[in-house]
Specification:
The complex is a heterodimer of chains A (340) and B (508).
Chain A: H1 2-6, H2 10-26, E1 32-34, E2 37-39, H3 41-64, H4 72-88, H5 96-124, H6 128-146, E3 152-153, H7 157-164, E4 166-167, E5 170-171, H8 172-190, H9 193-202, H10 204-209, H11 214-240, E6 242-243, H12 252-262, H13 274-293, H14 301-316, H15 318-325, H16 331-334
Antiparallel strand pairs in A: 1-2, 3-6, 4-5
Helix pairs in contact in A: 2-13, 3-8, 3-11, 3-12, 3-13, 4-5, 4-6, 4-11, 5-6, 5-11, 7-11, 12-13
Chain B: E1 8-17, E2 20-30, E3 35-39, H1 46-53, E4 61-66, E5 69-71, H2 76-81, E6 84-87, H3 99-104, E7 110-111, E8 114-115, H4 117-130, H5 146-159, E9 164-168, H6 176-191, E10 195-199, H7 203-209, E11 212-217, E12 220-226, H8 232-240, H9 246-263, E13 266-275, E14 279-287, E15 291-295, H10 302-308, E16 317-322, E17 325-327, H11 332-337, E18 340-343, H12 347-351, H13 358-370, H14 378-391, H15 408-420, E19 426-430, H16 438-453, E20 457-461, H17 465-471, E21 474-479, E22 482-488, H18 495-504
Parallel strand pairs in B: 3-10, 3-11, 6-9, 9-10, 15-20, 15-21, 18-19, 19-20
Antiparallel strand pairs in B: 1-2, 1-4, 4-5, 7-8, 11-12, 13-14, 13-16, 16-17, 21-22
Helix pairs in contact in B: 9-16, 13-14, 13-15
Classes of the chains: A mainly alpha (340), B alpha/beta (508).
Chain lengths: 340, 508
């Protein structure tokens, strides 16, 4: 009982449930089946969470090493610009093969962007916040250069599918996010990658002396973060069927960092939680929907979000919890006597 | 002194942690103007008792009286206000701030809210002069040695009108002359009526400076004695609770092994290996099954020498052969591939990863060597970890506990386990016994002897000459960042001989 309250994911999960219940009452359709697909507010929330989940996954890995990646939004814009530019030039925008190839190219370009970040951080030794700030600022410029300052519209069925399509009754975007989460979980927890990342984030010096090649690992997490941001950019752009270099992924880095923090990963690095980040991302998306659903005036949106986030962070603080809830549990129970 | 009333009286102190009774009805008292040593093994309850006194922990039972008045100490600040000041084992200062700022941090002399820098510097200088220290108080603390930093911490603690001053392992990183300086300061403070609680693992130091001592074991009070009433052997028996033949046992083994090592094949051979500004070029050969000890004062280059053999720092001249093949140790990974392991003297910053569990810390080096794509299967991890927790008697024996929560001695064992599972040919251990109790120290020494019996080469770095003499087949003596002599550890070699070598700086 007590251990449930102590779990760092209890409060995010509880708030998410509360928000979802609110939506259940306010929305006309929460979950319904239509033409063999699932529809409704819940499905929309999950589908629209996909880009933030993808970016958040990468951010989690970067933060676990004690770094941060501010450039994810710009990478999204670049990836979208590359994809739309290439699709636009296709003879047949609806042929699946070339579109898949282009998606692959866009992701590889995004990973190269991550490689740049990783090299600045791990080889040249620039502080992560500064190193990725460079691409954050320059990246949107690059995206605009690619698209020649225009918004490129595409009419590609296969491309649109990754955002709005359905597979086995579920949105493709959601499936991509789930698959990416599963992949990252496998990659970090079934191999020793997670342990080594946590070690590097926990103490870089001690890790080096334990023979961990921190440099290669650090570069790797930025590359993965870049690739995932690129994928998120594609989903975003496929959703609006165009590449908009200005608004694609605008300020998403902040939501992604927030999702990581809500998920219980400390910004100083070390221990991280993939599931926590996913929970955080869905929570943030749900919050955005709820604000509209319960009729909070649009100008108060951000304020409302801030209040919820502050409340959440306070609940998660062990010190505050001790003060507020410590009195509810008798002292003797906490320090149950067991003879050693 | 006996007629005086105690300045501090703790009676029936009880402190319980989940699963453990850390203190079980402990009585402790201190008189003004005495140095009182608190003795006990790791986990005996010394740190817990100190922390209840400094307000880090709240007590679950018992009473604390300061100057006869019952007090409830609920935090470090309250403790300070009540006249209890502490200098912790690991120096807790801000090395990026100036000496003066460190002394007055949180209580800077102000006028109209503005800090009076001039007055602060002047008062800091006066304070330090009282302790016989001549420092540039506006220089950053980081520009001084750890020993000086320790003195600054004491100056800070003393300045807050302390009635009780707690010194937790203040000497563990000081060399002999600095220890003397510290003792002079302690005696001065004693004269002025301060009661000093002194914790140290160096028995000689305890006997040199203390008036009275209290022994704890397993969270219980064993006894309070005047120092002259209790011999060192009796004291150790009280602390351990059993006859301690362990240390002599270790010595026999090392002796027996001495002849054998001479004929063995070399594991590493350094020829003119050096690093500018860190250690002058040196020649050193370490054979299979041989323990080479490094002796020298603090800052003499012991650690710097050792680090080159692991690639922790890169040598900029000379050459090194490992198992007969020339190698360039660009980084620790290369060294590990060659079968070299290195446990740093800075347990906390260069050794353990505090957030990770005991299990994760133990398998870390082996896992790093295998690469992240080849995880050690969980079952195998548990096997290895259980084996080493038992073999090295790591306590508490819980592999899933964050290593941060273990005592220093047990963290050291975790580090040793980390390297032992990589089955190195050469094990470099830098100050493995610093700041840990007699029992754990004996265990580690015995382990080193056993490893060398099993054919492992060991480079053993320690500030304690006796320890180096007890374990080593060969002793490298350092002075001023230079390896000045290499001594076979034969019957004629003793601590005096090494001291003379250091003092004369002979390069024979």
């Amino acid at each position: 009982m007590i251990s449930i309250f102590k779990n760092r994911l209890f409060w995010p999960a509880a708030i998410l449930v509360v928000l979802l219940v609110i939506n259940m009452f306010t929305s006309r359709q929460f979950v319904t089946v239509q033409d063999g697909h699932l529809f409704g507010t819940l499905i929309d929330i999950l589908r629209n969470s996909a880009p933030l989940i993808l970016v958040g996954l990468g951010m989690t890995l970067v933060i676990s090493t004690g770094g941060i990646d501010l450039s994810v939004g710009s990478v999204m814009a670049i990836s979208a610009a590359v994809a739309c530019l290439l699709i636009q030039d296709l003879d047949d925008q609806n042929s699946v093969g070339p579109v898949l190839l282009i998606i692959g190219i866009a992701i590889v370009v995004s990973m190269l962007m991550g490689l740049w970040n990783g090299a600045l951080v791990a080889i040249i030794g620039i502080q992560p916040i500064i190193a990725t700030l460079i691409l954050m600022v320059a990246g949107r410029g690059i995206a605009q250069l690619i698209t020649d300052g225009q918004i490129i519209n595409v009419q590609s069925g296969p491309y649109a599918t990754i955002a709005s399509g359905f597979f086995a009754a579920l949105p493709v975007a959601l499936l991509i996010a789930v698959a990416a989460t599963a992949l990252i979980l496998l990659l970090t927890r079934r191999t020793a990658l997670g342990l080594l990342l946590e070690s590097v984030g926990g103490s870089p010096t001690a890790s080096r002396l334990a023979g961990i090649g921190a440099r290669r690992l650090t570069i790797m997490v930025y590359v993965v973060a870049g690739g995932l941001a690129g994928l998120a950019g594609l989903i975003y752009s496929a959703n609006i069927k165009s590449a908009d270099s200005i608004s694609a992924g605008n300020l998403i880095e902040l939501d992604a960092i927030l999702a990581v923090v809500i998920g219980g990963t400390a910004l100083v690095g070390g221990r991280f939680s993939i599931i926590g980040t996913v929970l955080g991302a869905v929570l943030i998306q749900t919050l955005a929907v709820t604000v509209v659903a319960i009729g909070i005036p649009s100008e108060a949106n951000l304020l409302f979000k801030a209040v919820v986030v502050v409340a959440l962070c306070l609940f998660q603080s062990p010190t505050l919890r001790e003060k507020v809830f410590g009195r509810l549990t008798p002292r003797s129970a906490a320090g149950a006597e067991v003879t050693a | 002194m006996g007629e005086q009333s105690p300045v501090l009286e703790m009676t029936g102190i009880r402190k319980v942690f989940p699963g453990v009774v850390a203190l079980d009805g402990v009585d402790f008292r201190m008189f003004p103007g005495e140095v009182h040593a608190l003795m006990g093994e790791n986990g005996a309850g010394k740190s817990t008792l100190i922390k209840t006194l400094t307000g880090v922990y709240e007590i679950d039972g018992g009473e604390i009286r300061l100057g006869g008045v019952p007090v409830r100490i609920s935090g470090p600040l309250q403790a300070q206000q009540a006249g209890v000041s502490t200098v912790y084992q690991e120096v807790n200062l801000c090395t990026n701030l100036s000496v003066a700022e460190n002394i007055f941090i949180g209580r800077e002399p102000r006028r109209f809210g503005k800090i009076q820098w001039g007055r602060m510097r002047r008062r800091a200088a006066e304070l330090l002069a009282r302790l016989d220290l001549d420092l540039d108080v506006s220089a950053p603390l980081s520009s001084y040695s750890l020993a000086i930093q320790q003195m600054v911490a004491i100056a800070r603690a003393v300045d807050v009108e302390a009635r009780v001053l707690i010194l937790d392992e203040p000497t563990s990183s000081l060399d002999a002359s600095e220890v003397e300086q510290l003792f002079r300061v302690m005696r001065q403070l004693k004269e002025s009526g301060v009661a000093i609680l002194f914790v140290s693992h160096f028995l000689d130091q305890i006997y040199e400076v203390s008036d009275r001592l209290t022994v704890l074991r397993n969270g219980q009070l064993i006894g309070e004695h005047r120092v002259e009433e209790l011999s060192q052997v009796q004291l150790v028996e009280k602390m351990i609770g059993k006859e301690l033949a362990a240390l002599e046992d270790v010595e026999d083994k090392a002796q027996r092994n001495r002849e054998r090592a001479a004929e063995a094949t070399p594991v590493v051979e350094a020829r003119g290996l050096g690093r500018t500004g860190a250690i002058a070029p040196y020649d050193l050969t370490i054979h299979e099954g041989e323990v080479v000890g490094l002796a020298g004062l603090l800052g003499s280059g012991r650690t710097e020498l050792a680090r080159l053999l692991f690639g922790a720092d890169k040598a900029d001249h000379g050459e090194l052969t490992v198992s007969g093949k020339p190698v360039n140790l660009r980084n620790p990974q290369v060294a590990m591939k060659k079968g070299i392991a290195f446990s740093s003297e800075n347990r906390r910053t260069e050794g353990i990863i505090g957030d990770l569990t005991v299990r994760e810390n133990i398998i870390l080096a082996l896992q790093a060597a295998r690469g992240w794509t080849r995880p050690i299967p969980r079952k195998k991890q548990d096997e290895i970890v259980d084996k080493y927790i038992k073999a090295l008697q790591i306590r508490p024996a819980d592999p899933e506990r964050p290593v941060r929560n273990l005592s220093g001695g047990n963290q050291q064992k975790v580090l040793l386990a980390r390297w032992l599972i990589t089955e190195p040919k050469l094990l470099i251990i830098d100050e493995p016994t610093r700041g840990i109790d007699v029992g754990a120290k004996a265990e580690i020494q015995r382990l080193v002897a056993e490893l060398s019996d099993g054919g492992m080469a060991v480079l053993f770095v320690s500030a304690e000459l006796e320890e180096v003499l007890r374990l080593s087949h060969k002793i490298g003596v350092l002075r001023d960042r230079r390896l000045i002599e290499e001594l076979e550890n034969t019957a004629g070699v003793d601590a005096d001989r090494i001291m003379q070598t250091i003092a004369s700086g002979a390069t024979s």
